[in-house]
Every structure is written in structure tokens, then in C-alpha cells.
Amino acid sequence: MTEWVLKAEGLSKGFTLHLQGGVCIPVLRDAGLVVKAGECVALSGPSGAGKSTLMRLLQGNYGADSGAILVRQADGGVADLATASPRAINALRRETIGHVSQFLRVIPRVPALEVVAAPLIARGMPREEALARAQALLRRLNLPDRLHGLPPATFSGGEQQRVNLARGFVADFPLMLLDEPTASLDAANREVVIALIAEAKARGAALVGIFHDLEVRERVADRVVEVAPLREAA
Amino acid sequence: MMPDDEPILSARGLSLSFGAVRALDEVSVDLWPGEVLAIVGESGSGKSTLLRALAGEMRPDAGRVAYRDASGQDLDVHSMGEPALRRLARTEWGFVRQDARDGLRMGVSAGGNVGERLMAVGARHYGDIRAEAARWLERVEINPDRIDDRPGQFSGGMRQRLQIARTLVTRPRLVFMDEPTGGLDVSVQARLLDLIRGLVSDLGIAVALVTHDIAAARLLAHRLVVMRHGRVVEEGLTDRVLDDPRHPYTQLLVSSVLAA
Ligand SMILES: Nc1ncnc2c1ncn2[C@@H]1O[C@H](COP(=O)(O)OP(=O)(O)OP(=O)(O)O)[C@@H](O)[C@H]1O
Ligand SMILES: Nc1ncnc2c1ncn2[C@@H]1O[C@H](COP(=O)(O)OP(=O)(O)OP(=O)(O)O)[C@@H](O)[C@H]1O
Ligand SMILES: [Mg+2]
Ligand SMILES: [Mg+2]
Predict the structure, then answer these.
(1) I need a surface site. Which of A17, A91, B97, B258 has the fewest CB within 10 A?
(2) Predicted ipTM of the assembly
(3) At what angle do helices B156-168 and B126-139 cross, to 10 degrees?
């Protein structure tokens, strides 16, 4: 179980801002990252260095200018996210790449329980079973039962983030991407997240995270990878 | 090859001019089974024309549209002939119009509007048709007590929901939607979008959706096509096109929306 799950190499990414006269912002050049099964790698670096940009590339949300993002799927097949078609990326997100963003994107009128169960239902799990799993995880994250049936639009920041975390951890994704997963949590829930990360590692998931909370990083990360800012801006 | 690995609808090199206006300029798009494709772009960019060309309602000057039907046969939409096209529109396809009055029969009751589509695919038993119509009214959140009312007595949002029930009752494989939430209040739009989202994923239908609403595209679509001056200027995974837009026009489009 020491095979890599994620192998990113030679990644470059910049932004051309056509509305600002075509100015180019180079952010990553020749960046790489290898994460093995059961390992959690933390990205660090100063604000604006490109940590979130790298994370978004790994999720397929941004497109790489060059390089490869190889992801090993549960069936052993390897896909290159940097060149995959939109349909292939959607399939990877359904089966392989789990993601916890910094903030929940709320969908109008969809109750928290359904938001959390959706990744399981998308993978074909029977609805009742998916909802039961979602409920158990929301309870573990101390979200009161009376909120489970409500759409998260009116929830507090910490409540929304716990829904987001539950959605990310509800399915056994081989690769998990976590952008500031504990940012708006209290101490008790932070402990739950630390335990969830440990369990994901134990089942052989590869994790990449941005943790501004140094204590959390210390406790979950096996390695820290520095994302260095590019000096020469064009 | 698995059937789902091939597009259900595939257009190549569609061009169509109205006098000096090039409404479509070499447009190619694919749509896969169960996929929602959103078509966005400024007014007059050719979105509705594209949808009508895809649905066989408007013949392009050049190009081809292929549809793979339920039996797995590839059909050329613009050469299959009127009767075959009309049969498809009645059975395997649906079209949701921006103005519900164009998609409904205003002189017929709500139940009749839904039942009519069922009869067009062979339903004959009056009681069954009425019961199914009532179930669909409920599904689109219209009180089944209103089954005998005409659409003229409904609000704009209700009419649009009725049009959706009428379109989806026969479980089409492919649905074209042209601004289905246009002209409605924002709160009514949100409810309608949620309804469409749920039905489309439950029924697994392929949808080509024309919309001005970037947030709606993000909510509903797997893939996004951006049109300008009759051309596709950018296309791809919905969230990537919106969060990492490449083309100057897409950047302008995205920057003019608040936190979509
Ligand atoms: N979609 C985008 N369009 C244009 N520029 C972008 C985009 N996304 C990121 N950038 C730019 O890329 C650079 C790196 O940003 P990024 O968010 O990756 O930094 P970060 O390391 O995560 O910082 P922080 O610790 O503050 O979150 C910044 O200059 C940012 O403005
Ligand atoms: N039947 C027609 N006769 C003449 N010109 C037409 C016809 N249909 C469309 N056009 C022209 O073709 C161009 C594209 O029109 P289309 O209706 O496809 O735009 P659209 O992208 O749907 O715009 P909107 O967002 O305003 O609905 C426009 O310049 C329009 O005036
Ligand atoms: Mg960041
Ligand atoms: Mg139009």
C-alpha cells in the first residue's frame, strides 16, 4: 500500500486577465506533488503563493497550462486530470476525488441531509442507506438533528462548514482534497475532523490539505510541501 | 462500446445566416445521455437559433445534426422528413419554451395539457391519463385540485411548471429548454430551477439548456458552451469555464455576475 495515488508533475499555471489589458499573472511553474495511499500532505507557503490554485488544479476546477496530474482510481486505472475531458473529470469527481472547499456552495431548497447524501447517491447507493450514512456523519459532527431537514442557506458559518465536511467525508474517495477544512470550527468539531482524517488515512486514502491551523497540521500531516511564490511577475 | 459512451445528439459545422446576420457560424456541439449542457452568451449570439437547429425546427445552411434514437439508430435530423421529426418531438424529445404560452395549449385544461402528451404516445384509458396528469401536477407543485383550470388562470411560474409537467410526463430522452425561467420573479426562478434540477437527475434525461442566468447554468449544467456572434468561443466543464475562463468574452461575462 505504498503506491502513489496522486502524481502531479511539471505543472504550470498562469492567468491572462483580458479585462486588465491582457496582463499575465504566472502563479505556478514546474510544480509537482506525489501523494501515496494512507498519506496526508499539507501545502504551505505565504498568502498568494498559489496553494489554492494548486488545489483547484488537482480538482479539475482550474485547467493546467502544462504538466500532468495523474490520479490512480479505485480500479487501478490511471487518469490524467490535466488532459481529461469534462465528462471524464465529472466521473473522477464522482468516484475518485473527494473535495472539501473552504465554504459550502448552498443549493436553494435542498436539505442538509440530501446535500451530504448526494455523493453516495451519485455513486449508486440506495437512497435510504445513503441518507442513514449522511445522518450518522452529521451527528458525529454535532449538527443538531433539527437542522438535518433544512436547507443550509440559513445556517451559521460553522454549521455550513460541517455540512460541507460531511459531504466530503461521506464517501470513501481514494483521493481527498481539503482547503482549510477546520477554519470555522470550534475545538470539539476540530477534533472530529482530525479523527476523520486519521480514519481516511487508515483506509488508504491519499489526502492533500491546506491547514492554516498549525496544531491541526502537525497532527494530521505526514509531510509539508512548500508552495513558493514566483518572483518575476510579467 | 457502451451506448452511454456515444453522444445522443451531435452537431457538426452548423452555419445559418439571416441576410447579413450570421446567426450560426460553424457550430459543433455534442450532448451525451443524461447530461445537461448549458448554452450561454449575450443577446443575439445565436443561442435560440442553435437550439432550434438542433431540434430540427430550423434548417441550417450548412452542417449536420445526428440523433441516436432509443433503438440505437443514428438519424440525420435535417433529412429524416417532417413526419419522422414530428414523431420524435412527440415521443423521445421535449421542448420547454421561454413563453409558456408557446409550449402549452391555452384553450385546454391543465390536466388536458399533460394528458394530451400521454395520448400522443398511445395512452388511451381516460382514468389512468387523468390520474397520471394529477400525479404530475403534484410533482411540479401545482395543487391537483386545479386540474380542470385552464393555464390562463395560472400565474407565470405555475404556467411554466405546467409546461415542464407536460414536457416530462412522457419521459423523453432529450429535452430542449430555451430560457425556462426567463421573465419570472427571482424567488419563483429559484423554485423552478430546483424543480428542474431534481426532475432531470431523477429521470436521467439529456438537456440542452439556453440561459442568461450564469448561476442557473452552474447549478444545473455538467458542461457549458459560451456563444458570441454565432460562434462557440469557449466550452468545457461548467465550473472550470466559470472559475478559470480563458476567452476575453467569457471573462467579461463572468465578471459581470455577482458571485455566481
Ligand atoms: N481565477 C483566478 N483568476 C485570476 N487570478 C487568480 C485566480 N485564482 C487565483 N489567482 C491568483 O493566483 C495567485 C495565487 O492565489 P491562491 O489563491 O492560489 O493563493 P494561496 O496560496 O491559496 O493564498 P492564501 O493563503 O491567501 O489563500 C494570486 O495572485 C491570485 O490572485
Ligand atoms: N427568423 C429570423 N429572421 C431573421 N433574423 C433572425 C431570425 N432568428 C434570429 N435572427 C437573428 O439571428 C441572431 C441570433 O438570434 P437568436 O434568437 O438565436 O439569439 P439569442 O442568442 O437566442 O438571443 P437572446 O438571448 O436575446 O434570446 C440575431 O441577430 C437575430 O436577430
Ligand atoms: Mg488559499
Ligand atoms: Mg434566445
Answers:
(1) B258
(2) 0.94
(3) 130
